[in-house]
């Protein structure tokens, strides 16, 4: 029995996990014991296009990019489960949706519904995606930012090299907190990228849809079969 068939059979035995045959048949990538379906990839493209105000692009290059983002998402989800990181509560997710509607559609529910229909999405799809984005920020804040230390030399270098002459008139002390936050965010983002790279190498990733596999694939570790 192939590894994918064993994975599928195991998933079907997990209590509370209902996988219909159409979903199982649509598996595109297996990331450890988690799966990414073809519909997941298409939805990721639609959600990104909606939030960027773009036309959905379902080309192979776009699907590959969406697939890699979903792989990273699954790796973060796994780490959040193992580390018992808090998830965004449902009430907060509804607030995020309301805020999105306010800022992007002038608090016009009908306008948001029309946009969602245009992109083939539902309010629940968007709400869940906004909650996932909030989860990522929680993970970043709790997992990486506490370890980031920004020293005075870095702050001074940023002030000297990247702050505009007009802003410099405020003085370094007035901008110190803002600069420290920017530097901490950049460092945490880089640390997250390095962590994801390491996790991709450690995790078994099976590309059922061979078209989505990276051009160069390693043997062992994060091999794609």
Task: Describe the protein.
- This protein is mainly alpha-helical.
- The chain has helices at 3-12, 21-25, 38-52, 60-83, 90-105, 109-118, 123-143, 152-162, 165-168, 172-202, and strands at 27-31, 34-37, 205-207.
- The chain has a three-stranded antiparallel β-sheet.
- Strand 1 (27-31) and strand 2 (34-37) form a beta hairpin.
- Helix 3 (38-52) packs across helix 4 and helix 8 (152-162) packs across helix 10 (172-202).
- 15% of the residues are buried.
Concise summary:
Helix content is 65%, strand content 5%. The chain is mainly alpha-helical. A hairpin with a 2-residue loop joins strand 1 (27-31) and strand 2 (34-37).
What gyration radius follows from the Cα positions, in whole Å? 21 Å
Strand residue percentage: 5-15%
Strand order of the largest sheet: 2-1-3
Question: Major β-sheet, in short?
Answer: 3 strands, antiparallel
Q: Give the helix proportion (percent range).
A: 55-70%
Note the run of SSEs as H and E. HHEEHHHHHHHHE
Secondary-structure-based class equals mainly alpha
Q: pLDDT average, as an integer?
A: 87
Number of strands: 3
Tell me the number of helical segments per DSSP (H or I, 4 or more residues long). Answer: 10
Q: What global shape is seen? A: globular
Q: Report the span from N to C terminus.
A: 14 Å
Low-confidence stretches: 1-25
